[in-house]
Amino acid sequence: IAALPKAELHLHIEGSLEPEMMFALAQRNGLKLAFDSVEAIRAAYEFSNLQDFLDIYYQGMAVLLTEQDFFDLTAAYLHRAAADGVRHVEIFFDPQGHTARGVPFANVVGGIARALAEAEQRGITSRLIMCFLRHLSEAEAEATLDEALPFLALIHGVGLDSSEVGHPPEKFARVFARARGLGLKIVAHAGEEGPPAYVWQALDVLGVDRIDHGNRALEDDALVSRIVADNLTLTVCPLSNLKLCVVRDIAAHPLRRMLAAGLRATVNSDDPAYFGGY
Ligand code: ADE
Ligand code: ZN
After folding, report:
1. Is residue 277 pLDDT above 90, yes or no?
2. Is 90 exceeded by the pLDDT of residue 231?
3. Ligand nearest to the CA of 93
4. pTM metric for this prediction
5. CB-ligand 1 contact for 14 (6 Å cutoff)
């Protein structure tokens, strides 16, 4: 398995920020972390649900300021992924986690894209997917899409992430329709913690090309049949599901059931600096 060539289709680049780099970037940028050692950071990575993780994830990414920071983050991930046999990677980024702190959009997309271009020289192909934070408003997602317009040559698709329950896909119907009109591919986190209804909405309202997670689709046979009939891929993240208590233990993970049901379930990392794996 270690030697096999791999594709990574569900990776939040900010979720690959290892504590060591968090410290290095904090120092470079003159910032003080809430933790005083790498061990203390790692010890804080005990989560009982998605929101527990997100609170720490947004705090961690606050060390990312400059174009070079985003380059270094992405380059480190790509070197590690290449060592694991990754040949193709589709990377999510969360621009609103940065622009809300005053970081220019260009720093974010510029640094990530420069590292992807460099990795392409080493034979790793890639795509970039811009995610909207679903706990924020659709108007804020629209403003983010506006900011992305000058960079669309670097961005292949748009996604939907962050706190799922209470923020159904239909909240973002208009911005995703506009993104589709711009020629962007559409994905969405759905059915990670949210109910099957959110997966239906991802299909019928957003018109997704792929579903991120999709675990809870298994609760609805008609939904499973629909996903199979549409030939849609699920980007499943078993270690993430374990760490965020979506599953009780890894043996209880539904990956096998997904495959048996005819779903195109793939195995991915999500946020490997926080969940382990890669
Ligand atoms: N952002 C980063 N990781 C995420 C996840 N697993 N679910 C929702 N939003 C996220
Ligand atoms: Zn994710």
Report:
1. no
2. yes
3. 1
4. 0.98
5. no
